[in-house]
Design goal:
six-stranded antiparallel beta sheet, 3 domains, binds flavin-adenine dinucleotide, Rossmann fold
Length: 351
């Protein structure tokens, strides 16, 4: 609840090419916010609040207007992190009218391992206790898992002056990996995350290894939730592999009655299938990698494209898997002119 007051902040960005930066911001955020564009100005409206961005060569002038102090801080960080990502190696100066009000990000939650168990041969569920699970109910479902170095008191990220997160370095460096909140147990105050145990010969897999070794009492932090939520549509087509299975299962579980859900899910073999539940109508097709011809690539995306061609026009398309399959699906959606506000397309890992 708010008292109608809003929280404001202004910022100035000096990018190498301000017009291109504004285009990139609009193009990216259209999948996450309502984006209005008029010439050199853009308005981004999301549940965090409103961002008005105006190009006044060579600067981008930013105005944030948010319902809470926390939302203002999150909106600033999100915009700052994206702008520096878009700038890449190009110089970017970003300054704000005020510095961050809190030392720690308002969406940082310390959580403790309660239990861990294998739910299939290669999927391990870790249950975490969390002091306040309210932010995780409905809405966005992804988090960044922050794993501190063993046997050290964790140091969590703070803020840089430009609004980006300041990550601890050296001996305090954290392992950071994106994961999905598979379920929220309100009564017990618990969050579940399902970790794929993916063997990567000769390479460490710190995210998967954390779940393999997790013991009751282990302390980690979750940054979020954010980055994509439960789609609201009468028809949803989901295409994903094991890394997306927790999200697909959660979307199905939380979809209201009357939703038509089709899912194409690629897993190693039949032992990795999981029972999915939904109040909606659920049609799942499992693809088993063990049955593919040797050297086969792109099977998931080509099956996804066939399903998309057969789907109704206003279908919400949800895609998450390995980068190459995602690229192929994105290109296909672009070719078909699929409405960007009716899709979520994200790569969850890279070969
Ligand atoms: C928004 C989002 C939500 C996600 N949710 C989940 C989730 O709920 N559960 C989950 O298990 N994963 C999820 N992922 C994927 C997960 O973040 C990645 O798989 C991550 O790379 C795992 O980290 P790691 O430390 O185990 O391996 P890394 O250190 O990142 O990678 C080590 C090696 O493993 C390979 N590798 C990484 N992931 C896979 C994979 N899935 N299959 C095969 N090889 C792989 C890499 O190519 C690399 O060679 C999500 C990703 C995103 C972006």
């Amino acid at each position: 609840m708010t008292d109608g007051r809003t929280f404001k902040l202004t910022g100035v960005a000096l990018a190498l090419d301000g017009a291109q930066m504004l285009d990139q911001i609009c193009e990216h955020f259209v999948e996450h916010a309502e984006v209005g564009r008029s010439g050199h100005s853009a308005r981004l409206a999301s549940k965090l609040g409103v961002a008005n961005i105006r190009l006044q060569e060579p600067k981008l002038l930013i105005e944030l207007d948010c319902p809470t102090e926390e939302a203002l801080q999150l909106a600033r960080t999100s915009l700052a992190e994206h702008m520096f990502y878009f700038a890449g190696t190009d110089p970017l100066e970003l300054t704000w009218s005020e510095t961050a009000a809190r030392a720690l990000p308002p969406n940082l939650h310390e959580v403790t391992v309660v239990a861990a168990e294998d739910i299939t041969p290669h999927m391990r569920r870790v249950r975490f206790s969390c002091a306040d699970v309210t932010p995780f109910i409905g809405g966005d479902m992804h988090v960044r898992l922050l794993i501190p170095p063993k046997s050290r008191r964790p140091v969590w990220p703070g803020y840089r002056d430009d609004g980006r997160l300041a990550w601890p370095e050296g001996e305090d460096e954290l392992v950071v990996r994106p994961y999905t909140i598979r379920a929220v147990d309100r009564e017990r105050g618990e969050l579940w995350i399902d970790f794929l145990q993916h063997p990567a010969p000769g390479v460490r897999t710190p995210g998967a290894d954390f779940a393999r070794d997790a013991l009751p009492g282990d302390l980690v932090a979750l940054l979020g939730p954010g980055a994509g939520g439960l789609p609201s549509a009468s028809s949803i087509l989901m295409i994903g592999d094991e890394s997306a299975l927790p999200a697909i299962a959660r979307i199905a579980a939380e979809a209201p009655a009357g939703t038509n859900i089709k899912a194409i899910i690629e897993v190693a073999d039949a032992k990795e299938e999981q029972p999915l539940h939904s109040a909606g109508r659920l049609d799942i097709r499992w693809l088993h990698r063990s049955r593919y011809p040797i050297g086969a690539t792109g099977t998931l995306s080509s099956e996804g494209q066939k399903a998309l061609s057969a789907s109704v026009a206003d279908t919400f398309v949800w895609v998450a898997c390995e980068k190459e399959d995602v690229r192929a699906m994105r290109a296909f959606l672009k070719l078909r002119g699929h409405d960007k506000s009716r899709m979520y397309v994200a790569w969850y890992w890279e070969k």
